[in-house]
Write a structure and sequence with these properties.
The chain has about 280 residues and is of the alpha+beta class. The chain has helices spanning about 25-40, 85-100, 115-125, 160-175, 240-245, and strands at about 10-20, 50-60, 65-75, 75-80, 135-145, 150-160, 195-205, 220, 225-235, 255-265, 270-280. The strands form two sheets. Strands 1, 2, 3, 4, 5 and 6 form a six-stranded antiparallel beta sheet that branches. Strands 7-8-9-11-10 form a five-stranded mixed beta barrel.
Amino acid sequence: MVDLESRREGDRIVVLLDPGQPIELGDLSESFSALARMYGRHYRPHGETAPKLYVTKLETGSILMEIAPYVQMLGQAVQPIDAVVIVADFTNRIWRGIKAFSGSPSDPVRLEPPSEDDARDIREFVKPLLGKKGAELGIKHARYRKTDGEKETVVEYDFDETELNRAAINIDAALSDDAPLLDAPNVTPDHQIKREVMLFMDQANRSPGKEKGRTGDKGVIPSISDKPLPVWFRRSFVTDLKGQMTKDANPMTSTFVVDVQVQSVAGEPKGYIVIAVHDAIPGE
């Protein structure tokens, strides 16, 4: 890190990582490394080496970090002429990459997904926040004014716990062996993923939910099929989605609002993989 306290002007990328609990040091280091890799891929004008990103301010508790591009000239770190463009473009690139995977089906605009490399690094970047209750990510393009040194916000993006978890699940699905290429307009075909549908359990055993193999869990999703079909549960950063779903609700009398990946043969649904749980509505 270089001493930039005397340079309190110019544009910054402000990143807030708030997991609501301590972060393991290795996860934090890998998160920052993923951000640096993503930056390095996208800013190389005319084949030149990209201006390096420097941390100009770091606060603990929740991690609040200010980042700015600088180049070395005559032994000093100075912002490049196009620093405003670099900060604006990279801040937007991070937001668009996460939003492409975290967006709700009701969003009026669906963003095109980033490259596979970007998707992997976005997954690594948000990893310290995944599965953490109340977690929050904030990304801001901020500007320090030369006149009085005050900071103003140019644009700000925020993601909550649900959006971050949804993004990670969708990235995992998109990077799986049977997923289409990420440069295609749609990451996952609409017929495979159904979001915020009602699931009624027809049969449920006491053991944790299985991701594959024989399962004792069966359920009905009326909007897809009126037949009870096998139900599996995606395992990634959330260790037991079934446990999360049934913790405070009787599985046989409750209604569950879930995202599922539909398993089909010749167009006919044969089973569901629960990939996210939005709500559990207890029944009488």
